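Let's do one together. I've listed all components of the complex below, 1016 residues spread over two lines.
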Amino acid sequence: MAEETIMAATAKAGKYLTFTLAEEEYGLEILKVQEIIGMMNVTRVPKTPEFVRGVINLRGKVIPVVDLRLKFGLAEQDETEKTCIIVVQVAQGDHRTIMGIIVDQVSEVMDIGGDQIEPVPSFGSSVDTTFILGMGKIGSKVLTMLDIDKVLSAGETAAMRDAAQTA
Amino acid sequence: MPRTKGKPGEGTKTDEKNDAKANAKTSAKNGARANAKTNASKSAKPDAKAQNAPQNEELPREVEALAEALVLLEPSDVSAMAEAHTSLQKIVESLKQEKQERFAEATHAAAQLVEKIILADTDEPDAAMATLLRFVAALQAAICNGREEAECDFPVELMPGGAVEQPAPEPEPEPEAPKAKSGLEDSTTQLPPAAPQAAPVKKVEAADARQAQTETTGPSDAQTALEADRELLSEFLSGEAQEHLEAADMGLLELETDPSLEEALNAVFRAFHTIKGVAGFLGLTQIGSLAHEAENLLDSARKGELVLKGAAIDATFDAVDGLKKLITEVSEALATGVAAPANAAFGLLIERIQAAGSGEALEEDQGEPEGVPGRRLGEILVESGSATNEQVESALQRQRESDEHPKLGSVLARDEKVPARDVAHALRSQQQASAVKENVKVDAERLDRLLDTIGELVIVEAMVTQSPEMKGIASAELARHLSQLNKITRELQEMGIPLRMIPLRSTFQKMARMVRDLSKKAGKRVEFCMSGEDTELDKSVVDKIGDPLVHMIRNAVDHGLESDPAERRAAGKSETGRVELRAYHKGGGIYIEIEDDGRGLNKDAILAKARDRKLINDGDSLSEREIFNLIFEPGFSTAKKITEVSGRGVGMDVVRRNIEALRGQVDIQSKPGKGSVFSIRLPLTLAIIDGMVVRAGQERYIIPTLSVVRSIRPEKQHRTQILSKGELLSVQGELIPLFRLGELFGIAEAESELTNAIAIIVEEENRRVAILADELLGQQQIVIKSLGEAMKGIPGIAGGAIMPDGKVGLIVDVSGLTRFALTENKEDEIDTKTYTDQEAPAELSAGKA
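Okay, and this is what the predicted structure of the assembly comes out as:
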C-alpha cells in the first residue's frame, strides 16, 4: 500500500506551473501548458454554464475560456493587472483540444519531487477530488496539484456535450 | 502462401476435368493429345538447350517478377491482372527475340488466358488462375533455371499443339484454319499434328511469315478473316467493334477538352482493350496489335506518365480511324470474299502511336488551324471544311431539343458523322487561345493551409481598412490603395473557394451500389436514377454528406418502398420501385434530393407517436411540414416499432444533426401512396459566408445573409401576444413568430422596447421567423471558425468568426435557434417548470436517453 503510494507520487513528480486562485496556490503540469497570455476580450457564449466565460481569438483560432474561480465555486473577482489566461492542451477522449483558463496570477515554475507529494486527503463523498493529483508540500507552502484534463472534462465539457446533444 | 499451396491442387483438378471432357468426346483425341505431349517435349529439347544461356537478361527477371506477382494475384483484381498481362506480353516479345518461338506462343496463350479472366470470359476463373500459376512456375523453371521443357510442369492446354481445352482458335492464323472452317467440328481442329516443330514444311513457312509480320505488316486481317469463324466475326464487325469505337470517339472528345477526365480515359481504354481482346480471339492480328498499341498509350496516360493531348491524343484518334478502316476492310473481305492486300501505312501508324507513347511527339503533319479566341466550334469546322453549314445547323437544333444538353462536338460527331478527330482539332484550336490546361496535384492539407491563410488575410484586411485610425487619415492615395487591397483580397478569396470543390460523383456511385445491394437483400425491384453527379461541393461537405445520404436512401428503399409488388400495382404504380438521387444548384446553395415513389409518410402515425412521446400537445395543430419534421426529433427515432409504421425515422435525428453541422437544412415532402422527397440544402462553401452583423446589448451576433429575407423596424400595432405561446409579428399581412435575441441568449441590457429594436426576418426550412435585435451593424464577409470540440453544438450558435476589431463574434444558427426557441416554449407549457439555461439542455438530453 505504502509502496503504491510512493510509486504514484513519483509518477506525478515533475515540473509544475503554479498559480493562485483566491490566495490559494495551485499547480499544473507544465507539459500541458501551451502559453500564458494576458487577459483579453472574451466573447460570452450563450447557453453555456456560468464558469465558461466565452471564447477568445488566439491568433486567428477561436478557443473557449473557463474561469477557474467560478469552476471551483470561489467568489468572483474583478480582473486585475495580474489576471491572465493559461492556454492548456486538454485531452478529451482520444483527441486534444486547446482551452484557456483564467487565473488570478501565475507564480512560478517549480520542480516537485515524489517525496514532496502527499496523497489527496478524503473529504467524504460530498467533495469531488477526482481532478486533484495530489498535494505538494514545498517548504511551508501547500500546493493543490491539478489534473487539468479532468478539471476541464469532468464538468464543463460534459455539460457542453449535453447541450450539443440537444441542439 | 496458402494460395500457392492451394493452386497446384486446383490445377490438377482442372486437368482431370479437362481429361474427362476430352475422354467424353473421343478417346482417339486423348491419344492424340498424349502424342502431342511427347512430341512436344522431344522436339523442344534443342530449344531448351539454347535456353540455358538467355542473351536477354531482362527475360528471366521479368519472369521472376511475374511469378512473384502472381502469388498474390486475385482474379477479380483487374488492374493487377492487367499488369500480369502486360508482363506476359513483354515476355512474349523477349522470347521472340530469343527465337524461343514455342515458349513465345505458349506465353501468348497464357496472356490470352489472363485476358479472358479479366473479361470474365471464363466459367472457372480460379481454374484458369491455377493453370496460369502452373504455367508461370514452369516457365520460371525453364527460363531462369535452365531446365528442359519436359522437366517443367507446363500445363498442356497452353502449349502449342497441346491445346485440348482451349476454346479459342490459335491466336495466330494457322495454315490449317481454312480446314477448321470447313468442318467446324472439334475433332478436325484437334487432328493436325501438334508441335510446330514437327509440322510439315508448309507450316514452317507460315511461321516465317508470322515472324516477318511482326517486323513489317504481314498478311492483312482481311486475308485472315476469310479463313476465320464467320459467325463470330460478323458479330464483332457489325456490332461490338463499332460500338466500342464510337465510345472511344466520345471519350476522346471529352478528353480533348480536359485530359484529366479519368472516366473518359477509362472508357477509351476499355474500348481498345475489349477490341484487342476480341481481335486476338478471332485471330485478327492487325486489329489486335493496333488496339494493343493504343491501349499501351492510354495505359501510360492512366498511370499519369503521359498527358493525353497534342500528338498523343492525335495518335489515339488515328488508332480509332485505323481500326475503323481495318474493320471496314475485313467486312468487305467477308462480303466479297476477296481480301484486300496488306496496307503499308499500317506499320507507320503503329510507329506513330509508339512514338507518341514514348513521349517523342512526331512533327505535326498538318497545319493546325489558327486559334482565334471566342470563335465558335461550328464556325471553325465549317471553315476547315470538316462540316457543312447544314450539319452545324442541324446539330445545333438537335442540341437545343435534347434534354441532356450534349456538347455540340458530341452531337456533330455522333449524329452528323463529322469525323471526331476533326471536331477535336477544332475544339483544340478553340481552346488554344484560352491557355493550355494543366493540372497539378496538391496535398489537401496544403490547400487547407492556403485557404486558412486567405481567411486570415480577409480578417486582417477588414481590420486594417475598418480601423478608426485609418479612417481618420484623409488621403486619397491611401483610400485608393486600401480599396485595391480590398479588391485583391476579395479576388483571392473567390479564387480560393473553388479550389476545394469536388464533384459528388463518387459519393453518388456508392449510393447506386448500395441501392443495388439493398434491393437484392430486401427482395425488392428498385430502379435507381441519379442526376447531377457532377455538381461540385466543398470537399469536406462531400466527405460528410455520405453518411446522411446512406441513411436516407436506406430508409427510402427499406421503408419507403412497398415490399409487396401487389400493393404497388394496386396503387397504380409500376412494380419496380423507383428511387431517385439528384443534385443541383439553386440560389446560393446546392440541393441534394432523394425521391422515392413508395407509400409516403404516414401523418397520423407520426402524430400519434409524437403525442405519445410528449413531443407535441394534444391540442396542437401542426402544419404538414411540422408533422414531417417531427421524425427528426431525437425522441422519435428510438422507438423502432412505431417508426416502422410511419415508414421512416430510424436515426433521422442523427441525419439532421449531420446535415446541420454542414450548415445545411433538410426538408420533407410526402404524399400518401405517392412517395416522399427528402431535400437537403447545403451551402456552397463551408469556410466563408456573407453575414449580417447585429447588436444586442453589448454583444454582437452574425446572421448568415443567405437566411435573411429583410429587416424591418417593428411597430407596436404589428405585435400580438398569444397567451404564453409567445409573440407574433405581422409582416405584410403574414403573422410570423417573433423571438427576442436578448431573451433567448440571456443578454444583459438588450433593448426590450419593440419600437427601438429592429426585426430581422429570416427564412429557414420555408418557415419565417423574426429575430429581434437592437441594431443592424452592417454586412460583411466572415470566415467561419469552429468554437472547438468542447463548444460544439450549442443551440442557436453555428460557430464563431473573428471580427474586424479582433474580438470573436458568434454566428447565429437560424434553424437551430428557432427550434430551440420553440422547444423552450413547449417545455414551459408542459411542465410549467422553469429551467435555468444550463439545466434545460441536460434535462432534454436525459429525456432522450
